[in-house]
Amino acid sequence: MKKFFYFVLFFVFLEKNNAQNQFPIVENFIAKVLNNATVRLDLTIGTSIQLINGFEIQRSLDSTFGYISVYTYFGAVGGNNTLNLFHEDYPPDPTKIYYYKIRFSNGSFSKILRVNMADVFGEYKIIPQPLIDFSRLEFVYLNGQQWILEIADTRGFFILRDEYVKTGSYSLYRSMFPSNGIYFFRIYLSDGSKLITGKIISM
C-alpha cells in the first residue's frame, strides 16, 4: 500500500513538472512604434522549473544576422515568478525595417518581431538636398505649435536637439554637422501627436 502511495505521489510530481517549462520562455512579446520614432517593446517571461540569469533584447536590420544588444536584464528569470517589463529603443535610422528578439543567457531565443519604422513617416522637404552650406527643413506648421527636432548620425548619436522649434522652415547649416555623410532626423510635436522623420545628406 505504501509503495502504491509513493508511486502516485511520484507520478503527480512528474505530471506537474512536465506541465511546466524546463527553462523560461517569452509568453508575450509586442512591439509598437511610438510617435517620437522610438520602439516600445512589451514582454512577459513565464515561470519555469529552472532559473536563468538574465537576458538581452537584440536588434538587427536583418531577420537572421547582425543582431546587437540594445538592453540587458541582469536579474534571474523563471522559477515561480512571472516577469513583465517594457523597454523603449531608439533605432538609428527611422526609415528602415528592424527586427527584435530576446536572447537568454542559456542561448535560447524568443520569436522575432518585425518593425517597420516607415509606418510613422510624415511629409517634409529639405531645400536644397544635399546640404552643402545652407539648407532649410520645411514642413507644415500651424501657429502656436511647439516642435522638437532631433538629428543623429548613423550610429544613433544625437548631434542636435532643439526643444523649441516654432517655425515650419528650420535653418540647417553645414557647421552643425561634424562631417560629410548621412544623418537622420525626427521632428515631432511636444504633445506626441505628430511625427516627421527623414534623412539629411551633408556634403
What does this structure look like?
The chain has 203 residues and is mainly beta. The protein has two domains: 2-118, Immunoglobulin-like; 121-202, Immunoglobulins (Immunoglobulin-like, Sandwich). The protein has one helix and 14 strands. It has a four-stranded antiparallel sheet with strand order 4-3-6-7, with no helix packed on it. The longest helix is centred in the N-terminal third of the chain and has 17 residues, at 2-18. The chain is elongated and about 60 Å long. It starts with a helix and ends with a strand. The model is unreliable at 4-18 (pLDDT under 50).
Helices, strands, pairings?
Layout: H1 2-18, E1 26-33, E2 39-45, E3 51-60, E4 68-78, E5 83-89, E6 97-104, E7 113-116, E8 125-127, E9 134-138, E10 147-152, E11 158-165, E12 169-173, E13 181-189, E14 195-202
Antiparallel strand pairs: 1-2, 2-5, 3-4, 3-6, 6-7, 8-9, 9-12, 10-11, 10-13, 13-14
Proportion of residues in extended strands: over 45%
Q: What is the assigned CATH homologous superfamily of the largest domain?
A: Immunoglobulins
Which residues form runs of ≥5 with pLDDT under 50? 4-18
CATH architecture name of the largest domain: Sandwich
Any idea what the shape is? elongated
State the end-to-end distance. Answer: 88 Å
- Topology order in helix (H) and strand (E) letters: HEEEEEEEEEEEEEE
Trace the largest sheet across and list its strands.
4-3-6-7
Structural class: mainly beta
Write down the CATH class of the largest domain.
Mainly Beta
CATH topology of the largest domain: Immunoglobulin-like
Number of helices: 1
